[in-house]
Amino acid sequence: MLRASLASAIGLSTALAAGWIVFPRVLYQRQSQPVEFRHQTHAAKSGTAQCTACHVLREDGEFAGLPSIESCAGCHAEPMGTTKAEATLVADFVKPHREMPWLVYSRQPANVRFSHAIHVRRAGLECKECHAGRGESDALGPYRQNRISGYSVSLLTMSQCESCHRDRHVEAGCLGCHE
Amino acid sequence: MNPTRRDLLAWSGGAIAGLILTPVPWKLLGDSAKWTQNWPWIPQPARGPVEVKQTACALCAKGCGIRVRMAAGAPVGLAGAATHPVSDGALCPLAFGAHQLNWHPQRLRQVLHRGHPASWQDAVAAFRKAVAEGPVAVVDGRPGRAASAVLEAFAKQHGSYHAVATREEQSLAPYAEWSGVPTAALGYDFANVSTLVSFGAPLLDGWGTPGSFARRWSRRQVRLIQIEPELSRTAACAWRWVAIRPGSDAALAAGIARTMPLEAAAQQSGLTPDAIEELTRTIVAEGPVLAMSADAQPAVAALNLALGGSVVQRREYAAPRVPLAGSHRGILIDSTVPWEYEPQASGEVFRFAAWSGGGSHADWLLPAPGFLEELTDVPSAPASAIATYALAAPLMKPGHPVSSAVEFVGASIEEAIRARCERISRDGAGRLYRPGEREPVALAGLKLEEELMAGAVWVDNPKNTKIVRCKLKNWPSEVGRSEARRSWTANWAPPVLPPLAAKLFQESNLRERPEGSLV
User: Fold this and answer.
1) Of A149, A157, A171, which to mutate for an interface test with B (greatest number of B Cβ within 10 Å)?
2) Across the interface, do A62 and B10 touch by the CB < 8 Å criterion?
3) Is there a single domain that holds both residue B416 and residue B352?
4) Helix (H) or strand (E) holding B375
């Protein structure tokens, strides 16, 4: 009896360890950005900590996309240091005018529409409330992609959207986000 | 110590219990569901520049304003245009999902000759032969359009032109008979009504111009008294529902007007004499009053006149509604004709349709452009009190060869649209409602066709709408036809109805209630 209990306990522990420690590491594939980008360094050197200085919203308030390589070329027309990332940026992207293939942590699935205009302008949300303070860190960190669904681990889930809307007493039907 | 089989079973039991306490099973379940969303054969909206365009919905003749959200040049979402003078921001559930209709399984993608695949060349040759042998009848479902003018001109050369009257027009038919004004130019002035007595008209289910009426109703600007045997969706939402016996509309109307003894009206309608008296007092308590029916009911029209209600005449080109009959060599049916329509005449039938509802007796089924796949104009909605004009721009490209009836007869509508725009501009009357702007602008100096293509709507000067004078000498003896009441879904259920329609209907503003909640 003692021996069976011991075997069960070992099985339980093994499953718990595998489920809580091993499984998340196996489930998510780690990918690196084309170059390591430092938000804090850029904010300090440009003298502005405003996200919208680079992540522009259009006139109607919608997100206009990531900064183009032209924005980078404004300062990085020539290497500004001796790091490998700097050399890669200038040689592989700035000089050949090739857009950076950034891995977007919060890119929504194709069947979801997220309106920055409504959330930023009308609701007055700060960027960090959804983007987890990524702009305040000095390392982007690895992009972790779910091997099964193909989505980023940092993606906002529908339950998170619903929870926030519920807390703020804001109604949103299916068509508010899905098309 | 060697592990035994018993140890292995105990370990497995512990492991299974442990797994349930980890995120593994739940995460795998959720991620597998998401994985199925991205199978390669499942269509995905394109990623690309996002823009919003305003245009008119051409699914039916109402011409509601729609805002089309386009990604990479393809529509991915529809919403009502908030400042649209016709629909006032409301949309029916079908329109909310209409950009997906073009991929509906029932989409007609190939020419069919008596149920068998055929080519466009075969269809054109057969039609030319029919035209040569003549006569050919053309049936139009939405007269008054530029396409209608082209088809009418073709029909006058080669045969005859016929139009299918809408249900709204049918309800106005008695007034046309008493006033001499064509039904196509008649309308109800809902904007100036305080009490609306509806004999079965599904006013909150797509009848007439639903948006503007639903808005007035939701703002408690009108009392809706719904008189019909069934608790329809409109009856359920009405200020008051009066249940009567099927087919007793005319008797109750006569009873309210006191042209029939109360006892007789009560016996036929299933109400008590006291109930009819009380109903009459309620109706006249708050005017102006308008009484109307779902279809041709002379008694209800007469009651409306007796209550001081009226109908109006708007400035409208009114093609005569001549029903199709007799024998023709060929019958060309435009895609605007409801699917349920079957010609009561003999001849080789060439029927255009974007979606096939099945069970058609047409000799030729010809694929027509689907939603937002062709340029078309949208004249005044049936039973509208004021003349309007808008254009529905082509925002999508068909995925297979299609043709409109106009193209099939070798013509185009661009010239007819241009001519109508020039006529409106020359006349100078009315105002233009631009997308997103509440206040209309005058026409002077504007390029009307370009403005309409960009989503603007022309609305005639209200002074050009006149109250119609009717000559009714005797109470109509003929009891009107009382067809089975049908909702908006009935028109679309046979051909196409998106699965999400019911859900979308709940989310549409069409059925906003005075309390502010949605039904």
Assistant:
1) A149
2) no
3) yes
4) none
Q: The complex's ipTM?
A: 0.82
Return the DSSP state at B107: B
Per-residue pLDDT for chain B (519 aa), expressed as one digit of tens each? 688 899 899 999 999 999 999 999 999 999 999 898 888 887 777 777 778 899 999 988 888 999 998 888 888 888 888 888 888 888 877 888 888 888 887 889 999 999 899 999 999 999 999 999 979 999 998 888 999 999 999 999 999 998 887 878 888 989 988 988 888 889 998 888 999 999 988 888 777 776 778 778 888 888 999 999 988 878 888 999 999 999 899 999 999 999 889 999 999 999 999 999 999 999 999 889 999 998 888 999 999 999 988 889 988 766 666 677 778 899 999 999 888 788 888 899 999 999 887 778 899 999 999 999 999 999 998 888 899 999 999 999 998 999 999 999 998 899 999 999 999 999 888 999 999 888 999 988 889 999 999 999 999 998 888 888 888 878 887 554 544 444 444 455 444 554 445 455 545 544 444 444 333
Cβ contact B330:B128 at 8 Å: no
Answer yes or no: do B205 and B270 share one domain.
Answer: yes
Whether B16 is covered by a domain: the verdict is no
Residue B335 to residue B495: CA distance in whole angstroms: 12
Chain B residues 356-375 with CB within 8 Å of chain A:
none
- Total domains in chain B come to 2
Q: What is the pLDDT of residues B63-94, one digit of tens each?
A: 899 999 888 888 888 888 888 888 888 887 78
Do B381 and B426 lie in one domain? The reply is yes
Judge if B178 and B120 occupy the same domain.
no
The C-alpha of A53 sits at a distance from chain B's nearest C-alpha, in angstroms, of: 21
The position carrying tokens 């739940």 is B26
Residues of B in contact with A8 (CB under 8 A): 10-11, 13-14, 17
Instruction: Note the pTM of the prediction, 2 decimals.
Output: 0.78
Residue B98: φ, ψ to 5° = -65, -25
Q: B40: which DSSP letter?
A: T
Which of B405, B448, B411, B410 minimizes the C-alpha distance to B427?
A: B448
Q: What is the DSSP string of chain A?
A: -HHHHHHHHHHHHHHHHIIIIIHHHHHEEEE--SS---HHHHHHHHT---GGGTS-B-TTS-B--SPPHHHHHHHHSS-SSS-HHHHHIIIIIITTTPPP----TTPPPTTB---HIIIIIIS---THHHHTTGGGSS----EEEETTT--BTTPPPHHHHHHHHHHTT----HHHHB-
What would you report as the CA-atom Rg of chain B, rounded to the nearest whole angstrom? 27
The residues in B 3-32 lying below 8 A from A, measured between CB atoms, are 3, 6-8, 10-19, 21-24, 27-28, 30-32
Whether B54 is in a domain gets the answer no
CATH number of the domain at B295, please. Answer: 3.40.228.10
Do residue B255 and residue B288 come from a single domain?
Answer: yes
B139 with B183, same domain: the answer is: no
CA distance A92 to A87: 8
Both B296 and B368 in one domain: the answer is: no
Cis amide bond preceding B3, omega within 30: no
Predicted pLDDT of residue B317: 60
Domain-located, residue B52:
no
Range of the domain at B362: 112-167+318-466
The amino acid present at B472, given as its one-letter code, is L
SS3 percent helix, strand, coil of chain B, rounded to 5, is 35, 20, 45
**CB-based contacts of B365, cutoff 8 Å, min separation 6:** B108, B111, B112, B351, B353, B356
Does any domain span residue B121? Answer: yes
CB contact (8 A) between residue B28 and residue A148? yes
- In this structure, are strands B195-199 and B112-113 parallel, antiparallel, or unpaired? unpaired
Same domain, B178 and B286: yes
Residue of B14, B21, B77 with shortest CB distance to A11: B14
